[in-house]
Amino acid sequence: MIKSKSKTLVAIYALIMLLFLVDGYNCKIVQFIFGDSLSDVGNNNYLSKSLARANLPWYGIDFDNGLPNGRFSNGRTVADIIGDSMGLPRPPAFLDPNLNEDLVLKNGVNYASGGGGILNETGSFFVQRLSLYKQIELFQGTQVLIRAKIGDTEADKFFQEARYVVALGSNDFINNYLMPIYSDSWTYNDNSFIQYMMGIFREQLILLHGLGARQLMVFGLGPMGCIPLQRVLSSSGDCQDRTNKLALSFNQASTQLLDDLSSTLPNASFRFGDAYDVVNDLITNPNKYGFSNSDSPCCSFGKIRPALTCVPASILCKDRSKYVFWDEYHPSDSANQLIATELIKKFGFKPVNETESPSPAPSMAPSADGN
């Protein structure tokens, strides 16, 4: 009799544990990130032929162990910071060899790729990069694995409860339309090119909705004509006005697209995150926000401009926390923190999971040159 009761208790315990484990797959909301170098957390480091990789010092100098980690910054991305504030785990790079189904269920996935764009042809100069269509294709593959792991019903719930971030577009202008080596530069004018982009973008967002994306945020473009790489093209060092106007037009068209899709696609909550004014004010009035430089990169190759990426021989600015831009393209950790904070306030992002303990904001160490 005692043995019988013992076996019964063991069976009940095993059943409870099994139910707990199955339910555990659905207890946490994760995020799936699609983007370019502003959101890449290491995918391009696994693309051996890519010319757009953040795999050299001094990238990552203010992140965890200070070693390059695939982020095109000295520290965190805007997506890192916003996700942390919402209690969302930081999703690993899709191409990380350690990624498996359990990690996807626990942390989500980041498909972002430096040099990638909405258009397939964008960024071909970099040889290897993942366009948005390719990122969505990889997401489809992820879904196959998760459905095999937990079944269709639980997978539908998992993917529909997840948060989605889509943040691309700047490369479609800077590394496509505005460069005469690309056919798009002479095939379209400013208005028709944006219309062409929006047609493709609509198809991609509808495809994501069909794959379960219900709560999706598209982040708009900042004043990309004011990044150091664009300023150096001008003899005066001023922002490129045409490039900034293209960013504004893209944001306006994207806002209309998201409003339309959100009102027509079933159960869709598609939002557009317009950070143009926030970033523009930061660049125009850096002292207002505690910065001292908003027109040149912290990590540069002396007087040689533009040095497209940070390299071990680069010279770092004396105080990384005072520079808006880390390299010729990308904001510093301090700038990303300010941008993310303003977006959190603007859009009222709320925690969706119990907040864990993410990597803290970095304490800027002395520059590599000793200053």
UniProtKB/TrEMBL annotation:
Q: Which GO terms describe its molecular function?
A: hydrolase activity
Lipid metabolism as a keyword of this entry, yes or no, is yes
Q: Which UniProt keywords apply?
A: Hydrolase, Lipid degradation, Lipid metabolism
Q: Does the keyword rRNA-binding apply?
A: no
Coiled-coil stretches noted in the UniProt entry, renumbered to this chain: none
The Gene Ontology biological process annotation of the record reads:
lipid catabolic process
Read off the PANTHER family from this record. GDSL LIPASE/ACYLHYDROLASE FAMILY PROTEIN (AFU_ORTHOLOGUE AFUA_4G14700), ZINC FINGER PROTEIN
Q: What is this protein called?
A: GDSL esterase/lipase At1g74460
